[in-house]
Design goal:
Length: 321
């Protein structure tokens, strides 16, 4: 039986129809102003704006729904974990009774460990705890999308670019206070490398003067033993949190003088924790405030001089088995 002849004319018409149909389905190219304008060949194209690090937008974490979720995380997950790992002893709450509970407050503390933020989030009293935001290093807590989202949601962190000092970071923190949030800040700018403190920067003092906000000094002890800088996993140990008397900026006081008063208040709280309130005040008026920075000596001498500043641990020594 002869094979059917192929009508080439119909094949060609069919092919032209397919090509014509495919051209109709092709999406048209968008041009300016619906797309980015072309960059001339003689001009270097601008870099893509990253949405992490210091550019991360954490405004969503201060919405009511996010605050409810953060409250649940702090009370049901963070609080039991801190109690198990840090075993904190908290004192000085009676010194905060004079504060207006509806007014934003600057909580200022020394900084030895990544545990410090979690410990304070579970230690600061309820009137301010759930409207608390934390100034966090953008290169540490916001270096990728997942970590940035968890930091903003769980601890209320907003990115602070430590490489850019000046009004940009200060304006960002001031906006938080103006919105009615209390602010947790570590004026040392980073964790202690050896257990001794570092000089305070003037950011907290500047915000207190600009926003007319009271400052609550806090001394943290023992967090370096739990999770010091460079340590991979936390090691359970006892810690202490001591709240001091609120500080207000005096009329006409400049940033440098107020920052020195804040550092002196925190260091005096450390002396009080090591001895008692009366002896710490006697030494303060006789010799001036103690220093957080330790002696200028070799590392082994600084470690030896640091010792154990907790009277609780000295009163109840742990004997070797």
């Amino acid at each position: 039986m002869p094979e059917p002849l192929i009508d080439r004319r119909k094949v060609q018409q069919y092919a032209r129809g397919v090509v014509r149909t495919s051209r109709k389905l092709r999406m048209p190219q968008r041009s300016f102003p619906y797309a980015a304008p072309p960059v001339p060949s003689t001009v270097e194209p601008p870099p893509d704006q990253s949405k992490i690090g210091g550019n991360y937008d954490a405004d969503w974490a201060r919405r009511p729904s996010a605050r409810v979720a953060r409250t649940a995380i702090v009370e049901t997950m963070l609080r039991p974990s801190v109690a198990m790992v840090a075993k904190p002893e908290r004192d000085g709450y009676d010194r905060l009774h004079a504060l207006d509970q509806d007014r934003p407050v600057l909580f200022v503390a020394n900084h030895h460990s990544h545990l410090d933020t979690s410990l304070l989030l579970t230690s600061i009293p309820h009137p301010w705890r759930h409207k608390l935001v934390v100034a966090a290093a953008s290169e540490v807590f916001f270096d990728n999308r997942i970590k940035a989202t968890l930091s903003a949601l769980a601890i209320g962190a907003f990115p602070l670019d430590r490489s850019k000092t000046g009004r940009t970071a200060a304006d960002q923190a001031a906006d938080m206070l103006d919105e009615g949030n209390s602010l947790l800040i570590f004026p040392e700018g980073g964790r202690s490398p050896d257990g001794w403190g570092q000089p305070f920067k003037g950011g907290a003092a500047y915000l207190a003067i600009r926003c007319d906000a009271p400052i609550v000094p806090i001394y943290l002890h023992g967090t370096g033993r739990v999770w010091r800088k460079g340590q991979r996993l936390p090691k359970p140990s006892r810690t202490s949190v001591l709240f001091g008397d609120p500080i207000w900026a005096e009329e006409g006081e400049n940033t440098r003088r107020l920052s020195a008063r804040i550092e002196a208040a925190v260091s005096t709280l450390g002396d009080e924790l090591a001895t008692d309130w009366w002896q710490a005040r006697q030494r303060f008026h006789a010799d001036g405030p103690p220093t957080l920075e330790g002696p200028e000596a070799a590392s082994w001498r600084r470690a030896w001089a640091l010792g154990d500043r907790s009277r609780r641990d000295r009163r109840k020594p742990t004997w070797p088995r």
